[in-house]
Amino acid sequence: MNNEFSRREFIRTGSVSLAGMAILPSFLSLGCNRITEQSGLEEYYAHFNVDREMLQKVMAEALSRGGDYCDLYFEHSLSNNVGLQDKQVNSAGSNIDYGVGVRVLKGDQTGYAFSEEITLDAMKKVAKTAASIANENKKFPPINLQERVHPEFCKIKTSWEDVSIKQKIPYLQKLNDKVFSLDDKVAKVQVYLNDSSSYILFANSEGVVSFDYRPMVSFIAVCVMEKGDRREDFFASRSMRIGYEYINEELLDEIANEVVEGANKQFEAVKPKAGQMEVVLAAGGSGILLHEAMGHAFEADFNRKGTSIFSDKMGQKVGEDFVNIIDDGTNPNYRGTLNIDDEGILTQKTKMVENGVLTSYLHDRISAKHYNVAPTGNGRRESFRYAPIPRMRNTYMEAGPHSREDIISSVKDGIYVDTFTNGQVQIGAGDFTFYVKSGYLIENGKLTQPIKDVNLIGNGPEALRQISMVGNDLKIDCGTGTCGKGGQGVPVSMGLPTVKVTQLTVGGTNA
Amino acid sequence: MKDNKKMELAQWASKYAKENGAKEVSVSVSDSKESEVEVRKQKIEKIQESIQSGLSLKLYVNGKYSTHSTNRLDKNDLEKFIKEAILGTNYLAEDQYRSLPDRHLCYDGTEKDLKLFDSRYDSIDPRQKIDLAMQVEAETTGMDERIISVSGSYNDGSYRSYLVLSNGVEGFKESTSYSVSASASINGGDSRPSDYHYKTARFWDQLSGEGVGKYAVERALRKIGAKTIKSGKMQMLIENRSVGRVLSSLLQPMYAYNIQQKRSFLDGKIGHKIASDLLSITDNPFIESGRNSRLYDRDGLAARKMTVIENGILQTYYIGDYYGKKLDMEPTSSSASNLIFEPGDKDLSALTKEMNEGILVTGFNGGNSNSATGDFSVGVEGFYVKKGEMLHPVSGMNISGNHKEIWNNLVAIGNDPLTDRGWQTPSMMFEGIGFSGL
């Protein structure tokens, strides 16, 4: 069998005897050729088996009760996973998800329904359900649809649909072998490689029609080590909107070293003492502080309803002059990057805090209208099954004036944190937490003993005011960040330069 | 009611996969309907309805294993999907432990009405659903001038699934659920505390929204003025509705997956004391109208009632079929169903009065637990209690410790189990818990 056989070729031959190229059936019998990154609007229409006239009819139905806006969100997602456990690549899986969501807005009211069948009748039926948010009788002339072309922030070389399971397996096996070879204490390793390709067609009653291709890959390793009767575990992950070209030997080395060093460090780690102290956040994944403590509270739906602790703070000074917080959908290939958001708006770089002043919330269409501002491209949804809501993309703080060394040496008695597992926030109370998997004590300006498994808790506005030093070493993390809100998960990234917060409560030991 | 076409589709998929090279197959076909109404300021904020279907497959091909799912149920599509999935599976490594469960451990097809399905589901007038959500919000009108926002919500769902294993096992499940909920946000000066409440039912007739909105507002109001107090070891009384959060960290290391992957501090602890005498938990999947009631689990294993912990002694793990084979242990169940606790004889208020000094925990915020070591650290909120009196709300604090220790410090259990939840947790009181604050 020819390894180089392309997925496109395979589809064309239609012969399953050549399969094994991909574990995933690609487009099934959708009656079209495969869409590629180069495909245009007509190919997307053909792919979803729709045309302009159909879209116009569905929108007319959606607005027939007097709604003032509607959109149609077509989605076809193909995902694959391959897994290694107990030294063998012995599991795999695939998922196909296909459907269309119809949303009708009447002021700040939302009617939403979706269909897994894309036919005119099925779409009109769900459009009628969504239309019921309004209650007048209106007739709409056909909407003139114009294509909106967007930039491409996630260019790829090799689509995951062109990559066979056979090509993926050796990478998982190599990563497993590297981890075992690095340390005799390694007892168990798990490796997972997940990829997905999503195709989106979008049309709305403002006459915009657009489409998007969204790739994603995640590479995850978990390692358990045994030393005497003690066991410790650690994980490392990388995730980007990128193609097969991302996976190479260097990446495997990076991940292998990270899990082994991480797990090893756990054996030496202690819990810090409990209570309030200075906390230095390492550059990179510490951006979870921004995400939980500030980002969520800046999402405009909470502010529109007055339930966020930042609802009355627009235009106010919320941090030091050197604090600049960004939510950006344009960083090439990052996990939270989008060409258009899920309500058809071009994504952008949004400055939420500029020189310490709160300058923008993160908007969807509803909140933008409420505040009479332009949408920021933050309307996102997990899939066609959900209506969009304001969500973060890639959230980070711009580099500041201090060096990492100066920041660490300024702390007499505190902690330095560098790896995290999860976080949460209470939007109204402002209390946020994030869980530290590993870090170090700082004693007299120096990193000393490793620490592990502590939850940090603070208050958003207070923590923002207490950011007293910002490093010049911004790093955006490439881990598998998924943000949950309202029952929907969306991929995000976060970043931070080295930052000092003068006071957070550390869930340590009570000696 | 059974949809014969869906059942036939599951049977067809199983047969088709076997004809095309799978040695064994497990197929599940499901469909569901859901609806949701959210109301704010007596205006509908959101109406959503959905109908969906899906098919998932577990394939056992030449000693190799993979899982697949799709929502495209056209047979022509499925034929290609299944064939390609089988061919792709061949590239994996063989795994001797992957096979369908032994037939004698599986569900035998005996139908028993667990009273999980309400046949009225499709006939409920949407107006009544909207009215319920409206009522939940309306009862909070004028309650307190500090209210910023109250959302009243109504949700319902109807679910059906068919399971077909190529070893002859067939199963059908159907259930309905209804719920009303409220979330309230309050202007508390510097802070805008919020809280929620909800009620659920299997049957429409049993659903009532009365008091849901008011209680959500009351809970939010009592959080005003929360303070962080100094760090130290104290008593901790966890309100029944929050106990599940701590309990789930005790259950994780009981799962065979974590034991086999050496990520369980309970490895080798069957028959050992892991908690105080007061803790006795039974897993009962057969409770009528229970949240997690079932006749079989996702592997097709017949459900069984079992004692999980008795007087603090660990009696069983949760062992699904695959990890059971790997560990050479007989499967029990792949996941927890309804959990029933041996209750105490006092309610939350009586337990609060018994506290000398501690925190009544009414909610958790973030945090995590390491199932390999038992270490945990979690954010908490609640009320500072001294000599039986609730003095003021607390926030911004963590608890930390190790599960190997804290369950032995369980000193009282409430008589207030949450009977409308799957995990029917009562309130629980612990001693010597490490709180981090100032």
Give the SSE map.
The complex is a heterodimer of chains A (511) and B (438).
Chain A: H1 7-13, H2 41-48, H3 52-62, E1 69-85, E2 88-106, E3 109-115, H4 120-131, E4 146-147, H5 165-182, E5 186-204, E6 208-227, E7 230-240, H6 249-268, E8 275-281, H7 288-295, H8 300-304, E9 325-328, E10 349-354, E11 357-358, H9 365-371, E12 379-380, E13 389-390, E14 394-397, H10 404-409, E15 413-425, E16 431-443, E17 446-459, H11 460-465, E18 467-470, E19 475-476, E20 482-485, E21 488-491, E22 493-496, E23 499-506
Parallel strand pairs in A: 4-6, 8-15, 14-22
Antiparallel strand pairs in A: 1-2, 1-5, 2-3, 5-6, 6-7, 8-23, 9-10, 9-14, 10-11, 12-13, 15-16, 16-17, 17-23, 18-23, 19-22, 20-21
Helix pairs in contact in A: 3-4, 5-6
Chain B: H1 4-19, E1 24-40, E2 43-61, E3 64-70, H2 75-89, H3 126-138, E4 147-165, E5 170-186, E6 194-201, H4 212-221, E7 232-238, H5 240-251, H6 256-260, E8 281-283, E9 306-310, E10 313-314, H7 321-327, E11 339-341, H8 348-353, E12 357-369, E13 375-386, E14 389-402, H9 403-406, E15 410-413, E16 423-424, E17 428-436
Parallel strand pairs in B: 7-12, 11-16
Antiparallel strand pairs in B: 1-2, 1-4, 2-3, 4-5, 5-6, 7-17, 8-9, 8-11, 9-10, 12-13, 13-14, 14-17, 15-17
Helix pairs in contact in B: 1-2
What do you see in this structure?
The complex is a heterodimer of chains A (511) and B (438). Chain A is built from eleven helices and 23 strands. With 511 residues, chain A is of the alpha+beta class. Chain A folds into three domains: 2-79 and 94-147, no CATH class; 160-202 and 212-267, PmbA/TldD superfamily (PmbA/TldD fold), CATH 3.30.2290; 275-507, no CATH class. In chain A, strands 1, 2, 3, 4, 5, 6 and 7 form a seven-stranded mixed beta sheet that branches. A six-stranded mixed beta sheet of chain A has the order 11-10-9-14-22-19, covered by helices on one side. Chain A has a five-stranded mixed β-barrel with strand order 8-15-16-17-23. Chain A is globular. Chain A starts with 6 loop residues before the first helix and ends in a 5-residue tail after the last strand. With 438 residues, chain B is of the alpha+beta class. Helix content of chain B is 20%, strand content 37%. In chain B, the strands form three sheets. A six-stranded antiparallel beta sheet of chain B has the order 3-2-1-4-5-6. A five-stranded mixed β-barrel of chain B has the order 7-12-13-14-17. In chain B, a hairpin with a 2-residue loop joins strand 9 (306-310) and strand 10. The longest helix of chain B is centred in the N-terminal third of the chain and has 16 residues, at 4-19. The N and C termini of chain B lie far apart (58 Å). Classes of the chains: A alpha+beta (511), B alpha+beta (438). At the A-B interface, strand 2, strand 3, helix 4, helix 5 and strand 5 of A face strand 2, strand 3, helix 2, strand 12 and strand 13 of B.
